[in-house]
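Repro case for the chain-ordering regression, as requested:
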Amino acid sequence: MNRQELISEIRKKKSFLCVGLDPDLEKIPAHLKSSDDPIFEFNKAIIDATHEFCVAYKPNSAFYEAHGLKGWASLEKTISYLNKNYPDHFTIADAKRGDIGNTSSMYAKAFLQQMNFDSITVAPYMGSDSVKPFLEIKNKWVILLALTSNSGALDFQTEELKNSADKLFERVLRKSLEWGTEENMMYVVGATKAEMLKEIRKIIPAHFLLVPGVGAQGGSLEEVCKYGMNTDIGLLVNASRSILYAGNGTDFAEKAKEEAYTLQQEMKSYLN
Amino acid sequence: MNRQELISEIRKKKSFLCVGLDPDLEKIPAHLKSSDDPIFEFNKAIIDATHEFCVAYKPNSAFYEAHGLKGWASLEKTISYLNKNYPDHFTIADAKRGDIGNTSSMYAKAFLQQMNFDSITVAPYMGSDSVKPFLEIKNKWVILLALTSNSGALDFQTEELKNSADKLFERVLRKSLEWGTEENMMYVVGATKAEMLKEIRKIIPAHFLLVPGVGAQGGSLEEVCKYGMNTDIGLLVNASRSILYAGNGTDFAEKAKEEAYTLQQEMKSYLN
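-- result from build under test --
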């Protein structure tokens, strides 16, 4: 999916919601646990219930890898299901990969070609040759970690640098502009750091941002929109736990739908 | 495997060689390709041929993920084979993971518990709460990226910081000393930056270092030993491609063995 198509979907649905598919076996409803593939059945129900109100889905690879082969099979089934039934939704492999060139090429093959995700989240620590192999795949996206939503973000990302006025995450933004464009790169910026979006928009006015941290992590959607929205909207705001575990009975999908609808309605109000 | 056991193995074998298991289907010998699981058959032959001369094995997760479910199965078979047949070898999941706390816990479960690797490589960009969940698993190790062997290492890792005399990778070393000890943390330091090991040893005199970049990437083993070795040796030097693809005929395992032996002999000379 290209940038223009994503913007059209957002305007059509009046939503820039991304639903994070982080299925935790300890939290999914009891009645699903007897099925052959509880994780996939859970995801399928969540997707079918929420698709009208969101424009993107983001499975987090850790939640699948934790179950070994069976988990990897659930991930493959989930992305196949999305690609087949909801091709107008943008898909994000939240895998936070990044390694030397020949290794990043293998990760790109795994997520962007084999599984055919639209995009993958990538960690910047190893620099240019760890990111570029992902950008070599046509019509796909890198979503680079910039300023994350967790407390550990303050350990290194906000460290001030000596030879510029930049903090580390600002240097990541600026340097990565040499590698890709707003047509194939986005950035992760946590909602818990919304006030910093103002400065970030000075460096990357046009790029889309993937914003986690609304909901369970406590970030404010209103502030994210106030400081982060641009003329093309430029935001994908993720919610995972607040939607997935809105209910844990047989009506969990209905509860998830209500939660997604509530978020979409709030988003609609900021789009007007 | 704990620190003392690892040191004993190194002294016994007079080797601190780690063999990187990065099986590339385009490079493995033609006669293996007709087997049910060419990647596992290749790894098994490499392991059986090299085990006398090395103390560690390091499968790189990307090379398995690139083949989807089948690749993940090959990875699980490889680590099971190692744990069953060579329990005295230290095992490293070269996965370069790292995410917010609840997600890092899932990765820890996948690699350190389910697959039972001794250790996992972790990316530091997201800070303390992305690393600590791995350290919570008893008798297991985090191998944190500090100064990597690739050219992109110069994009961010060597950036000088404003409020200290540290470069970013030095800040990573210093900060992470608050999270773990030399009993459960090691660091990745590339052989291509061997001269910097002198400064690194001032910050972490006692920790083990995992050193990639000898062989195909051009780093010097002699320099790594000169600047990086401590009284407990403190080094695991990895070679992947130079061993795995020393030959590509039916005698590939024999060629790999010769290459591992050559490296072990050189290591032995530095241990004396």
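Ordering looks correct now. Chain B has one domain: 3-271.
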